[in-house]
Amino acid sequence: MKIKKINLGLLGFGTIGSGVLKVLQKKSALLENKLGVKIKLKRVCEINPTLVKKLKSIKVDVCKNADKILEDPDIDIVIELIGGIHPAKEYILKALRNKKHVVTANKALLAENGEEIFKTAKENGVDVYFEASVGGGIPIIRSLREGLIANNIESIYGIINGTSNYILSAMSEGGVEFKAALKDAQVRGYAEKNPHFDISGIDCAHKIAILARICFNQKVKFTDIHIEGINDIELSDLNYAQDLGFCVKLLAIAKKAQDSLDIRVHPCLVPKGHLLANVSGVYNAVFIKADLIGRALLQGEGAGALPTASAVVGDIISIAQKIPQDSQMDLLNVKAVNMSKKIISVDELFTRYYFRFTALDKPEVLSKISSVLGKFKISIYSVIQKGRQRSQAVPIVMMTHEAREKDIRKALSQINKLPFIKKKTVAIRVERI
Predict the structure, then answer these.
(1) CB under 8 Å to 226, separation ≥6 — which residues?
(2) What is the DSSP letter of 272?
């Protein structure tokens, strides 16, 4: 029997692109044996002179014009790894309209422009696969869409940004402040020169928008997601959390709340005994609650050339297996996706809170803070104040009973204006997982 050949076109030869090439070259014989399909990288589009030179040295056909790939009738699958919104969006749409399947790791593009992309794929009878967009080498997309398809997903909690998790782990385990941990992450290549998307929570929000759509069959506008990063977290917060029996994690959360959806990204206090509390360094993890499986955790490296390339190649294989049968799989059930569930405002969140006030060490400070909290029906669970420094700013740490977010915001707004408060109060939610 003649072995079918699947031709690939790769847009972008950065870290992930080079990893994909390495995996395809190293595993080509194994893949052909297992699939009965020969997968060939026909051409790479790259404009960086250094990378172009590298490609030519390993005898890979390279071009600088994406149309050489997008308009080539022999190319079956286009792999988009250039990132960003433009021109990636235009390239993907053109590939789909030219009846080419697409594999991408572009979470920002899918979160913000996914509707148009999936609709175009549907109209042209081709697929968009995106396993590498969330969790690097963790097969979370495939697990949700295939292995867990019979489950009614109740909630999903993700540590899905390796940079932020590495920084928080370095602070907690190494006893260093945020800036030192960030610098260390940059030196090790875990953080970009400009780490804004990672430490601000935006990267997590892009990913949870994708996961929420798959889990709950619901369109999620990126602008509807409440987002907070780890910028204001200090080493003292991690130490106090440890004393209280918690650790601090940046979580991306999506869960059902009666006829609504609760979707948000922010730092959380997670009980030390929970599975997510033990996910450290650059590792990612997704914790799922569902009706059939109960609770499950998927964990692995969330970034890096080879883990992400593994996810990309996995998508290529999935498409390659289907091409001979000419069957399309609607990964996101585009026709069924709706806006029936309201996205809950974070103001309606009802949970416990951790506060760190920075206040002058003077009589009646605690009573005045307590008075404001009481005014908004916020009940104090415990208070920690270590050491005294007369007339100097000291930390006061409080844990509350459950309270509503909008009341917390109003109370902190008033407390932060009190003359003895010297820094903006740090507030971290305690997540019930």
Answers:
(1) 263, 264, 265, 266, 345, 346
(2) T
| Residue of 204, 201, 203, 182 lying closest to 193 (CA atoms) | 182
Closest CA to 359 of 348, 367, 351: 367
Angstrom distance (rounded) from CA 77 to CA 74? 9
Helix (H, G, I), strand (E, B) or coil at 109: helix
Is 73 in the same domain as 206?
Answer: no
Contact present, 252 and 207 (Cβ < 8 Å): yes
Q: Which of 393, 431, 428 is nearest to 232 (CA)?
A: 428
Question: Rounded CA gap, 312 and 27, in Å?
Answer: 13
Q: Residue 338: inside a domain, yes or no?
A: no
Its pTM stands at 0.93
Out of 42, 100, 107, 207, the active site residue is 207
* Tens digit of each residue's pLDDT (9 = 90 or more) over 110-142: 999 999 999 999 999 999 999 999 998 899 999
Residue 209, φ and ψ in degrees, nearest 5: -65, -40
Q: Catalytic residue at 341?
A: no
Q: Are residues 129 and 167 in the same domain?
A: no
pLDDT tens, position by position, 169-179: 999 999 999 99
The single residue listed with the structure tokens 């798959």 is: 214
Q: Which domain holds residue 234?
A: 140-301
ω into 363 cis (within 30 of 0): no
The C-alpha atoms of residue 142 and residue 2 are separated, in whole angstroms, by 30
Query: pLDDT tens, 146-192?
Result: 999 999 999 999 999 999 999 999 999 999 999 999 999 999 988 99
